[in-house]
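hiii so um. not sure if this is the right channel but i have a protein structure encoded as tokens and i wanna go backwards to a sequence. like what aa goes where. can anyone help
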């Protein structure tokens, strides 16, 4: 009974409908920039409550295009260290300099106080990451800081499709939202991404940049672009995933409730508080292990003894990645709260099609390994 930490989900009904539609795309001769891409963009912008959505090849390209639009060459962009390295790499690819910032342990998201302290005359913008699917609860304060200091605010929405804060969707909370449709994500198209924005100029620039910088057709290249298109078959998958998103979010929230009810008060693990004005999208169900528990050992045991895969988010964070240590000289201790917190974060399997029996098996196995860890600690 192997249970992965994440798994893409297409219902049987959707698989059948997708299989029926693919031949007409293949016969149409229009494999890029056709009606499926346009429809996916239109429905996605309506869903997020923004003026424009532009489909691209990945979240990484979405971020790079957006950062290029803001012309970050030689400028500093503040990024939480707790993110996948692609967020920060996009800044480097666009010619900017990443300034990593610390996180709040109770949200795992960017700490507005730390952000304030890292602003310099060279700072041009901020990227906020809605980590694990929790829309950053401090977004209002971060919006205010950006407004006061004249900074752009990009949301990295790789984890948080459909999440809301005060009823407002992620992807509509900053100047631009950058989404991922990577296989583990809440919505997937294999690979793929989307930019959401109310800024027509950014959207038009993205339309040009994703296709080698085209102006009026491929003979007039007006920007330095790249091959960052989403193809029509990918957009078809996106349309079905978008249609299923609300139902999948409800399933993810129900799974999270089941985990929270079963684990409340369990020794060795603390649960995260989700404010009532927030709808979490539960890309991951994160828990906070007590300091006496070795997460790596616990993860190994869950895999070896119960064939259950647990996750982390993110350990190591950006500043502890070997490539950044080599290139920029970061080291342990530079981001005290991230260093202290992230090694204790453990994520339970989360995907819409996990069965009630599998959830019970995860809970039972997790509790039993927590008990064993506690006994070992006491006898050491
Ligand atoms: C927070 C975050 N940002 C960006 C990315 C990059 O997404 P993509 O693989 O679509 O480029 C990921 C992917 O894992 C991510 O988790």
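sure thing!! here u go:
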């Amino acid at each position: 009974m192997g249970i992965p930490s994440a798994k893409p989900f297409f219902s049987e009904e959707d698989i059948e409908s997708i299989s029926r539609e693919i031949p007409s795309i293949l016969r149409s001769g229009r494999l890029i920039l056709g009606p499926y891409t346009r429809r996916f963009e239109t429905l996605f912008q309506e869903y997020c409550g923004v003026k424009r959505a532009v489909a691209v090849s990945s979240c990484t390209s979405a971020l790079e295009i957006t950062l290029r639009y803001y012309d970050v060459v030689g400028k500093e962009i503040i990024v939480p260290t707790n993110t996948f390295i692609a967020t920060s790499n996009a800044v480097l690819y666009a010619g900017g300099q990443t300034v990593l910032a610390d996180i709040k342990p109770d949200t795992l998201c960017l700490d507005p106080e730390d952000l304030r302290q890292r602003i310099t005359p060279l700072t041009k913008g901020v990227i906020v990451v809605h980590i694990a699917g929790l829309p950053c609860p401090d977004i209002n304060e971060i919006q205010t800081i950006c407004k006061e200091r004249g900074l752009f605010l990009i949301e990295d929405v790789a984890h948080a499709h459909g999440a809301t804060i005060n009823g407002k969707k992620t992807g509509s909370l900053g100047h631009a939202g950058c989404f991922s449709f990577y296989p583990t994500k809440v919505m997937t198209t294999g690979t793929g991404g989307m930019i959401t924005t109310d800024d027509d100029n950014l959207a038009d620039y993205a339309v040009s940049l994703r296709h080698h910088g085209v102006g009026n057709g491929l003979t007039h290249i007006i920007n330095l672009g790249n091959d960052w298109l989403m193809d029509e078959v990918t957009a078809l998958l996106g349309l079905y995933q978008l249609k299923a998103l609300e139902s999948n979010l409800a399933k993810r929230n129900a799974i999270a409730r089941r985990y929270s009810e079963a684990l409340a008060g369990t020794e060795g693990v603390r649960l995260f508080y989700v404010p009532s004005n927030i709808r979490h999208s539960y890309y991951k169900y994160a828990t906070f292990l007590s300091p006496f528990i070795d997460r790596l050992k616990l993860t190994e045991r869950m895999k070896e003894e119960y064939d259950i895969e647990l996750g982390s988010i993110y350990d190591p964070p950006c500043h502890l990645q070997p490539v950044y240590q080599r290139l920029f000289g970061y080291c342990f201790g530079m981001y005290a709260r991230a260093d202290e917190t992230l090694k204790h974060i453990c994520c339970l399997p989360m995907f819409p099609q996990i069965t009630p029996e599998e959830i019970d098996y995860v809970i039972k196995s997790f509790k039993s390994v927590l008990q064993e860890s506690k006994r070992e600690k006491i006898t050491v």
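oh and The chain has twelve helices and 15 strands.
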